């Protein structure tokens, strides 16, 4: 090895492992457990050939193809095929995300924070940092491939054979290596860790979308996306290995390019010029509320787009629903039969609950950003000036309330507009919107709880997230697991009238609103008199 | 014996010229002060010396080797402390110190623990919990516990309290007594005055002054406070006299060191009642070059 370039790579490799040992264990465990659970669930829910063939009929529509890739193995849709068809791509996307986040963190973010400077001043090679990072992540992805393959084989499901399991694992592994290499290249181009992650995520999204469009309309287009390659392994049927080798080959090129670019550039410099920011603050920024909005602008815009797309993608399947439900006993169980309403309408009530709870995520993030600001000592910059605690809290709360409403509205509009385009008998847009808006009081209760914690127990604001997760599980899965009524009623989302199936119940809406107001006031009182944290 | 030299060191960042022909020379066993305002090019120079930036033109030679090409070999003999130390938040200070020692190819020795004690560092804390000063102590302990021949220190005391600053100064003097060289970039002029044998001042990417402290003092001015019986009407127009200000019945002004003799002869003719002089400090020198208008 060339000492000038790679000296001490071994020690640095151990350093990366030491830092990531817990993080990597959790990621790997999550990938393995998720795939095992799904494989098991499919085997239990669709035990017979006939049931799986019925299931695959409903999968043969453009919306599903766009989401998870083209259907294959039609004549014998085994549990293995079902797993690979529905899980491989989505898992690969998440593996890509993991590699982008972690590789960017160890390369450009490390350099931006000045830690590479300390390392480079010691007898280490110019490329030792990027080399040790890639070494760790190539090994991690290989380990992921082997562990996923091994654990699937151990399941003892006939159709999940050794050859297919290995290919399934390998597909995930090479996708990981592909994005690790790509991110290493972006780490040379961008001057910041955020920029590196941004470029990586943008390519990942574009690759996913190119494949979605390609899989629906043009095979050739899909060949321009790494995701397009791996969904063509036809795992558990034909077990094609060429996508693995193509992905690996291109990954090697990326890694070579990253090394080359790293070797010829100055430390902390990037090949993409960084754009100069604004010289003066816009008038919109000059208030605590303006600051709260400006700090989270990217998040607000991204969530707004994401919520509309999410609503729209649910909307796109509304047309095929009745035929789908006729054959799927899991969904029937999930919804529970109600006389006098269509299954589509029933499904919409469930979608609304899901969309409302997902819209609560950005709303709570916008609010709890204040906690991060406080912990980093930045909230103090405002509080030492003539900004009262209530005004500061109020600014973030108003943003959270407005944000939650906007997100839910966009999701409902996306659902309604696209849903009406594909349904034979349309449902008015007003009905869609109304069915969504009844969830606002439940969202306010969640925000109220977050404010209460922010005011009285800022160290454990995570409780509000756990409560949201709890709500999600009991409301979404309540029917499937046949949970008791009171378990569902513990969540504010369990009290919302299910429009358009049920009538508007003003009692429960006012009740929820009342609770929300109480929580908000109590939280504000606490926030006003407690110590400011961090610094 | 010369340890480090730069020859016409030039660095462009795109269109910006950060260094414009920097020449410095550090000799064996000396502490060399490197001073200049923010953005003058101090850190750029040091980073070129450490092989992190590639000079656009000119050369940087340390121990007879090229700073860019032989970086890895050179770094076995160099210890570096940056002004802004960032560490891995989930490692402890002790772990980071050991990592740095290991990367240098050294072994844990008694010196590490002695320095931890002298700098009053708690090595069991995670780095995310350290203040700026404590992170700096981690870097200083790692640097001084190594067996380097050249110490490159970039504003190493910017987060330390006066007590720790003194420990730092002791450490610098100790390595100097062992015949090692130190290149110290600093904003704290009293520190430079206390520690350094020779000094270079950099401004806008150029070395504008360099030499031993006593050499440089010849270029400085002495501040005088004088009270005379008769008013000195023509004082301001005397050669070598600057910044004349009235302070009650007295006059405060500055005199170029080389004109001190003539000026004193002139004011003695007005009947001196009171005279106070302040010694020329590096700060005056520094300020004079910062302002950069007069005297050029």
Structural notes for this entry:
The complex is a heterodimer of chains A (535) and B (296). Chain A is mainly alpha-helical and 535 residues long. Chain A folds into 2 domains: 3-264, no CATH class; 292-529, no CATH class. Helices cover 75% and strands 0% of the residues of chain A. Chain A contains 25 helices and no strands. In chain A, α5 runs antiparallel to α10 (193-217) and α15 runs parallel beside α20 (389-422). The longest helix of chain A is centred in the N-terminal third of the chain and has 37 residues, at 9-45. Chain A is globular. The model of chain A has no long low-confidence stretch (mean pLDDT 89). With 296 residues, chain B is of the alpha/beta class. Chain B has 2 domains: 2-216, P-loop containing nucleotide triphosphate hydrolases (Rossmann fold, 3-Layer(aba) Sandwich), CATH 3.40.50; 221-279, Alpha-Beta Plaits (2-Layer Sandwich), CATH 3.30.70.260. Chain B has helices at residues 42-49, 71-75, 93-103, 110-118, 132-144, 162-177, 189-195, 213-217, 260-268, 282-291; strands spanning 2-13, 16-22, 25-27, 31-35, 57-62, 65-66, 78-81, 150-154, 181-185, 198-203, 206-212, 221-228, 241-247, 250-256, 272-278. In chain B, the strands form 3 sheets. Chain B has a 6-stranded mixed β-sheet with strand order 7-8-9-4-10-11, sandwiched between helices. In chain B, strands 1, 2, 3, 5 and 6 form a 5-stranded antiparallel β-sheet that branches. In chain B, α6 links the parallel β8 (150-154) and β9. The longest helix of chain B has 16 residues, at 162-177. Chain B is elongated and about 70 Å long. The mean pLDDT of chain B is 88. Classes of the chains: A mainly alpha (535), B alpha/beta (296).
């Amino acid at each position: 090895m060339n000492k000038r370039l790679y000296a001490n790579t071994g020690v640095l490799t151990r350093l990366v492992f030491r830092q990531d040992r817990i993080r990597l264990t959790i990621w790997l465990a999550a990938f393995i457990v998720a795939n095992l659970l799904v494989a098991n669930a499919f085997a239990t829910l669709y035990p017979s050939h006939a049931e799986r063939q019925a299931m695959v009929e409903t999968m043969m529509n453009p919306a599903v193809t766009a989401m998870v890739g083209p259907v294959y193995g039609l004549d014998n849709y085994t549990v293995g095929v079902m797993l690979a068809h529905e899980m491989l791509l989505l898992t690969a996307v998440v593996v890509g995300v993991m590699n982008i986040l972690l590789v960017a963190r160890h390369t450009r973010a490390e350099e931006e924070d000045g830690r590479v400077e300390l390392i480079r001043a010691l007898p280490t090679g110019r490329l030792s940092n990027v080399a040790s990072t890639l070494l760790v992540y190539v090994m991690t992805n290989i380990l992921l491939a082997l562990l996923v393959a091994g654990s699937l084989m151990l399941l003892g499901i006939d159709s999940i054979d050794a050859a297919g399991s290995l290919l399934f694992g390998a597909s995930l592994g090479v996708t990981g290596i592909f994005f690790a290499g790509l991110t290493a290249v972006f780490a040379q181009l961008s001057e910041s860790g955020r920029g590196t992650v941004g470029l990586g995520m943008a390519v990942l999204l574009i690759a996913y979308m190119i494949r979605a469009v390609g899989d629906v309309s043009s095979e050739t287009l899909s060949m321009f996306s790494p995701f397009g390659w791996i969904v063509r392994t036809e795992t558990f049927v034909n077990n094609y290995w060429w996508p693995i080798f193509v992905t690996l080959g291109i990954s090697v090129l990326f890694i070579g390019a990253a090394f080359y670019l790293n070797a010829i550039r100055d430390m902390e410099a990037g090949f993409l010029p960084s754009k100069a920011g604004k010289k003066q603050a816009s008038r919109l920024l000059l208030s605590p509320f303006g600051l709260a909005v400006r700090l989270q602008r990217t998040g607000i815009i991204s969530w707004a787009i994401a919520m509309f797309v999410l609503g729209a993608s649910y909307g796109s399947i509304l047309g095929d629903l009745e035929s789908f439900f006729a054959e799927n006993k899991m969904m029937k169980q999930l919804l529970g039969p109600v006389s006098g309403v269509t299954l589509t309408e029933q499904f919409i009530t469930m979608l609304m609950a899901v969309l409302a709870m997902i819209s609560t995520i950005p709303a709570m993030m916008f609010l709890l950003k204040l906690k991060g600001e406080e912990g980093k000592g930045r909230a103090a910059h405002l509080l030492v000036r003539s900004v009262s605690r209530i005004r500061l809290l109020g600014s973030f709360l108003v943003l959270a309330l407005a944000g939650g409403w906007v997100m839910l509205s966009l999701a409902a509009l996306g659902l309604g507009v696209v849903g009406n385009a594909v349904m034979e008998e349309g449902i008015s847009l007003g009905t869609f919107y109304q069915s969504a808006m009844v969830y606002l009081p439940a969202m306010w209760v969640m925000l109220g709880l977050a404010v209460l914690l922010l005011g009285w127990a800022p160290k454990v604001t995570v409780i509000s997230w756990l409560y949201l997760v709890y709500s999600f599980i009991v409301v979404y899965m309540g029917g499937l697991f046949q949970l008791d009524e009171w378990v569902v009623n513990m969540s504010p989302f369990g009290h919302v009238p299910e429009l358009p199936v049920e009538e508007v119940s003003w009692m429960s809406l006012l009740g929820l609103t009342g609770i929300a107001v109480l929580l908000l006031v109590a939280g504000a009182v606490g926030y006003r008199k407690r110590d400011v944290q961090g610094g | 014996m010369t340890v480090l030299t730069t020859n016409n060191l030039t660095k462009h960042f795109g269109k910006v010229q950060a260094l414009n022909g920097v020449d410095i020379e550090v000799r064996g066993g000396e502490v060399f002060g490197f001073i200049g305002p923010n953005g003058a090019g101090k850190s750029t120079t040091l980073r070129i010396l450490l092989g992190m930036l590639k000079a656009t033109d000119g050369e940087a030679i340390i121990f007879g080797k090229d700073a860019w090409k032989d970086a890895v070999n050179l770094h076995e003999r160099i210890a570096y402390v940056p002004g802004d130390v960032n560490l891995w938040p989930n490692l402890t200070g002790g772990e980071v110190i050991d990592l740095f020692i290991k990367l240098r190819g050294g072994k844990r020795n008694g010196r590490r623990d002695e320095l931890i004690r002298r700098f009053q560092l708690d090595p069991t804390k995670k780095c995310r919990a350290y203040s700026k000063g404590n992170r700096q102590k981690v870097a200083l302990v790692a640097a001084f516990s190594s067996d380097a021949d050249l110490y490159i220190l970039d504003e190493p005391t910017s987060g330390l309290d006066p007590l720790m600053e003194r420990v730092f100064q002791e450490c610098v003097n100790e390595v100097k007594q062992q015949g090692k060289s130190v290149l110290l970039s600093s904003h704290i002029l009293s520190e430079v005055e206390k520690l350094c044998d020779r000094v270079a001042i950099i401004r806008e990417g150029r070395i504008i002054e360099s030499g031993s402290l006593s050499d440089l003092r010849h270029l400085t001015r002495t501040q005088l406070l004088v009270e005379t019986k008769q008013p000195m009407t023509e004082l301001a127009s005397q050669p070598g006299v600057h910044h004349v200000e009235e302070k009650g019945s007295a006059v405060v002004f500055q005199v170029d060191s080389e004109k001190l003799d003539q000026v004193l002869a002139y004011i003695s003719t007005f009947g001196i009642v009171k005279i106070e002089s302040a010694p020329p400090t590096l700060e005056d020198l520094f300020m004079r070059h910062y302002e950069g208008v007069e005297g050029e």
